[in-house]
Specification:
By secondary structure, the protein is of the alpha+beta class. It is built from 10 helices and 8 strands.
């Protein structure tokens, strides 16, 4: 028997050890480290940095090399006496060839370029490209800043989602605790009231099943968000006392200016202006210098060669098309500015709405706490009357139902307050 007790204790200790006890801060830290969406945001930053490095490479010379070896079935070029257009000259050469050429070992026809090797290396350096290289690098830099800012927005979303799921689970755990307490309080019943009590217990059993299923689903969602195993998760933070949020109030227009979303809107306008400059640069003259070295064995007297060059390119017919491109970018810039104003106003309304929600949550808590105090007092009085035979069991069960509803309401209001508090802080304290 002692051995059995020891084995049971060991199993219980192993099971407890396997559980991963997590606070709300633990979950937030895990989400920031493991969340898939945040990992993808980091990949977007890496992509933007790669684009910046690609744009930076435009400042450096471009070097290329070519090599060609060939062996043709027939010579690519043949030339003889018969290929001369002037008939008198052709006849004269035929006469001279017949008299002297054969004896001298000369051919009547010569062929060229049937096989050989060609090697070439060239380097070019842009001197001026209408500002496209400089503006392209600025645009790539904006891309990095935008990706980093977007990652911060995603972090806020993931943190809010984590807190929402965490406190919803805590709320259901407290509701389950309330069901257990009420079952204990309903334990004292007279034999004649067993039927009513049985109905109440069946209702409690169904509610407990719903709560347990809800906890499981929320744990699965939280585990997916933070990168954990929901079967091993144990949340130990509880809903504590809340404080009046008045001190947290901030003017909506001031808060919006410091938000990451506002920064993204500013970047979109800057990017559109740079796109316009890039379009203008395509119609401006460009200057390039370079040099090349070559070697070939196509001709018998082949030797290496080298040269330097400068090339000025001036678009002549592109101005008409560029004018329409610039007009398009002007319209896009105007649309971006309109969008910025529109979204700024909406973010101000969103901030005010978040503050109203927070105030309402605080009021809901105070009202729920008062209702809970009244429900507890009512249940105590009703239970005393029932034990004295002055009221029926249905009155006690109704008082218990009111107490359960009051506790659940207080729990829900506290969870709502915490979620609204996080949301408001994210909107005003970036």
């Amino acid at each position: 028997m002692k051995k059995l007790i020891v084995i049971v204790c060991l199993l219980l200790s192993v099971s407890a050890f396997a559980q991963q006890r997590l606070s709300i801060q633990d979950c937030i830290d895990m989400a920031l480290e493991n969340n898939i969406e945040l990992k993808n945001s980091q990949l977007e930053i890496d992509k933007a940095r790669a684009t910046k490095n690609e744009a930076r490479a435009e400042y450096f010379p471009t070097v290329s090399a070519q090599a060609l070896a060939f062996d043709a079935l027939n010579p690519m070029l043949t030339f003889g006496i018969d290929d001369i257009d002037n008939a008198q000259v052709r006849q004269l050469l035929h006469t001279l060839y017949a008299e002297y050429g054969v004896n001298m070992g000369l051919d009547k026809e010569y062929s060229f370029i049937q096989n050989g090797v060609m090697l070439n290396a060239m380097a070019t350096e842009p001197i001026y490209a209408g500002g496209r290289i400089r503006n392209g690098n600025k645009l790539a830099k904006l891309g990095i800043e935008a990706a980093e800012t977007q990652a911060k927005v995603k972090e806020d979303e993931v943190c809010l989602q984590t807190e929402t799921l965490y406190w919803q689970i805590v709320a259901l755990q407290e509701k389950r605790s309330t069901l257990d307490q009420l079952d204990i309080e309903a334990g004292l019943a007279m034999p004649t009231d067993q039927y009513k009590l049985k109905v109440k217990q069946n209702e409690s059993q169904l509610n407990r099943k719903k709560v347990d299923d809800g906890i499981t689903l929320l744990k699965m969602a939280l585990a997916q968000t933070i990168g954990a195993d929901w079967r091993e998760m144990e949340l130990f933070d509880t809903l504590g006392l809340e404080t009046n949020p008045t001190a947290l109030f901030r003017d909506a227009s001031e808060a919006v200016v410091s938000r990451n979303e506002s920064h993204l809107l500013d970047l979109s306008i800057k990017a559109e202006n740079l796109q316009k400059k890039m379009a203008l640069g395509a119609a401006l003259p460009s200057l390039m210098v370079g040099g090349s070295a070559s070697y070939h064995t196509i001709l018998e007297n082949a030797k290496p060669n080298a040269m330097v060059f400068a090339m000025l390119q001036v678009p002549i017919t592109d101005w008409h098309k560029t004018a329409y491109k610039l007009k398009k970018h002007d319209l896009d810039a105007e649309a971006a500015a309109n969008t910025c104003r529109d979204l700024t106003e909406k973010m101000e309304m969103q901030t005010n709405q978040a503050w109203f929600n927070l105030e309402q949550s605080w009021l809901r808590i105070t009202m729920a706490q008062t209702a809970l105090n009244d429900a507890e007092a009512n249940l105590k009085i009703t239970s005393d009357y029932y034990e004295a035979g002055l009221v029926a069991l249905s009155d006690v069960l109704e008082a218990q139902t009111m107490l359960k509803q009051s506790r659940d309401e207080l729990t829900d209001s506290r969870v709502e307050y915490r979620i609204n508090l996080v949301s408001y802080k994210q909107l005003t304290q970036n």
